[in-house]
Amino acid sequence: MTRIAAASALALALGCLIPCLIPHGPAAAQTPPALQNDMIEIEYNEPRSAKYKPIYARLKDRKLLEQLAAFLSPLKLQGGLVLSLEEGDPKACGGPNSYYDGAGRVHLCYSWFHYMDTQVAVERKRAPNEPFSSTSLGLMPGFTRSEVMVGGAVSVILHELGHALFQIQDIPLLGKEEDGADQIAALIMLQFGPKVALTTIKGTYNAWHHMNAERLQSQKGDIKPAQEADEHSIDIQRAFNYLCIAYGKDPATFQELADRLLPRARTAHCADEYKQAALAFKKTVLPEVDLDIMKEVLKMDFLRPEDFR
Amino acid sequence: MKRTITASACVAALVGLTALTPSRALAQQNISIAYEQPKKAEYLAIMKRLQQRKVLETLQQFLSPLQFPLTVRTAECGTHYAPYKAGGPVTICYEFVDLIESVLPGEKGPQSPDPTMQEMFKTLGRIGPNLITREMATVGPFVEHVLHETALAVFDNLEVPVWGRLHDAADYSAAFLLFQFGTDIARKTIFGTAYFLNQWDAVIREGQITDVNYLGDIRPTVRQRYYNLLCIAVGKDPIGFSSFIAVGRPNTPIDLPTRRIAHCRGYLAGAASYTSDYEKVRRAFTANILPHLDKDKLRKVQGTKWIPD
């Protein structure tokens, strides 16, 4: 079962990156009219492939896109944004993948959610005494299927929204945009308290570890220059980046994971990496957030207890 | 790697940066400099020659448009790189100058098509089809390194919002700045830096490329930095750097892959348009850094011939 916690994470992120003076109100059962943003449209596109139909049904029933649109509603968008759940073009969505097309549309491909469900969030059999290594696939020791499903889904949604924001809001970019999109995703995932942070960051780390392991297996343990030439960082670097930002924000919650999974020399820089991302968010995204609408978003209760089981 | 020229010759190649008398117009009290005494005799020789050639004094003038206090120093670091720390100095390690020297073109250059020209070709290096002189291979990486480190100081002191990893942003900014002094300077320094990074990667790659401490460092891998540099170069000057684009021949690790080129150059895809990475950096620099520079001094700096023909 796919668990999505994105909506609440983003809502609280927007509220807590500025002085937290906005009071939290009682939970609301439905999206209030105030949370309609005329610049945002949603599309549930029924898949052609049978294997994606259960995902489509679950996400539609969960009202994923409605919730996503609601918590994005405080954004004073300079252009239209379409949130599309789709099977999509095999070349673009076949990956597994999701992407922002540069023309105002975020394509959330079923292939990505399916991949998390069937490949990443799966415990693989290992030989007795075989350690979990950089080339080991699937669920990592101490990680749960739920964490991978939530983290893998939330991170890709927020990453693609990051691209959309960069372009629609014409946000200045000095570094590589793909890493910037990861930073936005990580930053937002960390604003919702330790439980959501740990769930989503762990799931994201596992997703990138798995993809790195797949590539290492296909390349006989080697990393090719073509990977270093890509506009994305290498998969395992992306995992490190997410965890480092998390550790930088909340060392207490992420100490054990950082000790186990991050190079020791890197951990000394993580607080600065978090501060860098937070500063960029504060200076380039927050000025275009409607605080009155954000107050309404904060009254919503997007999370369900079963999301974390 | 065999050292085929002495440290003095390496530093002598930096004369191109230093043969300027101090200019009253570019005098700047907020930029402090220091040549720190090293412990090792080999680095003492490097320090003395840098002092004789007034390398830091020249940098002091070059950095004169900056309007915040900054110290630039040379020092023995124990390693080739001393990470910039917030509020701290920009440090050029003697070990880094040593590293540049260690991968310079040697005594056995590429085979000349004409035996009468072999003497001329003897000390040349090659990156792809491009011939590289020792001067290019010295000045390029040295200047790029200084600009990279200075960019980190600028980001820190001006609280510049940086999306993407900090050291990618510093590399991108350095490459961008190399284009602000004319095409000739850009080509000379970027070809030289590309040569250096390619050689350096060849030396360290085996045994390091899958090492998590290398992949998880705050800096990109050396090969990633190579492609970052070319991305900006191809984005701005595709003709001048066309030798790194595999047209009508197989792609090699020297080349920028097609997929990355699309992002570096910017492109149109249906209704979508993707801005080139060079243009993104230019816009970010213009928005967030340029307003804080002394415009008169900037014009003078841009009009000064820092590197001779």
Report on this structure:
The complex is a heterodimer of chains A (309) and B (309). Chain A is 53% helix and 6% strand. Chain A is mainly alpha-helical. Chain A has one domain (6-15, 35-121, 136-287). Chain A has a 4-stranded mixed sheet with strand order 1-2-4-3. In chain A, a hairpin with a 4-residue loop joins strand 3 and strand 4. In chain A, helix 7 crosses helix 13 and helix 8 packs antiparallel against helix 10. The longest helix of chain A has 25 residues, at 194-218. Chain A is globular, with a radius of gyration of 19 Å. Chain B is mostly helical and 309 residues long. Chain B has 2 domains: 1-102, no CATH class; 121-293, no CATH class. The longest helix of chain B has 24 residues, at 134-157. Mean pLDDT of chain B is 88; it is low at 1-12 and 15-22. Helix content of chain B is 49%, strand content 9%. Chain B is globular and about 55 Å long. A 3-stranded parallel sheet of chain B has the order 1-2-3. The chains are: A mainly alpha (309), B mainly alpha (309). Chains A and B meet through helix 7, helix 9, helix 10 and helix 13 of A and helix 8, helix 10, helix 11, helix 12 and strand 7 of B.
